[in-house]
Here is the input.
Amino acid sequence: MSILEITTVLLLLASFFSIINLRLLKLPQTIGLMILAICLSLFVLAIGVIFPDFLDIVTGLTKDFDFSVLLIDVMLPFLLFAGAISVDVHELLKDKVTILFLATFGVAFSTFAVGTGVFWLIEQPFFGLNDIGISYVDCLLFGALIAPTDPIAVLSIVKKMNLSSITVTRIAGESLFNDGIGVVIFLTLLKVKLMGVENVTPEGISMLFATEVIGGILLGCALGYLGLKLVKYIENEHVELEVLITLSLVLLVTVVANEFHLSGPLGVVMMGLFLNRNIDTDKIEEGVQKAMGEYVYKFWHLLDETLNAILFILIGLEIIPIFQNFAPAYFLISIITIILVVVSRGIGVSIPIMILSLYKKFEKRTSLIITWGGLRGGLSIALALNLPDTIGDGKNLILFLTYMVVLFTIIFQGLTLEKLHK
Here is the structure.
């Protein structure tokens, strides 16, 4: 299929599923689309039993379609930028230490706790997976890719929970920044994997990590400042030009970050904060002028919803080949892994909140809400698909575990999250 045909099919499915969810399921968009995407996968598998050629066509399409590149280099930057321009930047700046501490410590702790736990599980003879060929570094890679949460999925539910603005900002900010931190940790560990542990020094890894993080933040700040000056110069008179500027800058951050090995997600988030809808760019007597016209923010909201819908359709299609290659032991180990992921997330956010609560106020059950609101999404799947094939059969296991965690967090945690605040 050509790019035009693939795009047409994805948009049609996204529109059709969105209508079904709106009129029949009446669930939060993310949860409804994920459930319908799973139904699509099961339908394709059922048809494939009767018509094997049909299943071969669909699986061949997913193999030819580089989902990881599409998400990481195209969809993720747009989704993160759309989230960053909508968060309450004033509250975020007031509470930046809390948000950064939650994002960095939470992701780092979860990476090593989950990675170590999964490695220990695989080594147990009971599962019969000790000969699968997964190293400790491979398990840490799984820990890194499953640590980041999906800010779009989280915010779509949290906004309905009648939480205080500071709590919503903390959850939104933590989700936005932990994506960037998670990708940096993943790429750093991937470098260790490809170079060989014996050829890596602590100094080299520290330098690589610092370059990715600091470089990505500085890049985002520089282009964000440039974008702010450009849209202020236009003075909201030409909204179509503001849309063009923001689109081009998001892509420019991604291209430059990839070229110089910087963190694109962190860069996009920082740039989005500069162009935030709550930034006062020019206070005048009649009122306050936003960074960009309201039309631009509505455009990004539309793009956000569209890409999010397409994302879950793609996730559903990508599940098909994974479920064709699994061992029975995968189900049992996935249940234990889900528990490990949730507990690690809980500890990873509870420790910073416990420390910070000595001099900051936190809403009741904040730790529990952030823990249970740690919904995983397309980023985790894209990173899993991006793993090198040298892992062998271990890659199938990691992909299976990733999908099971994503399905559990989005469907079960997503459907029960609102009840935590009642």
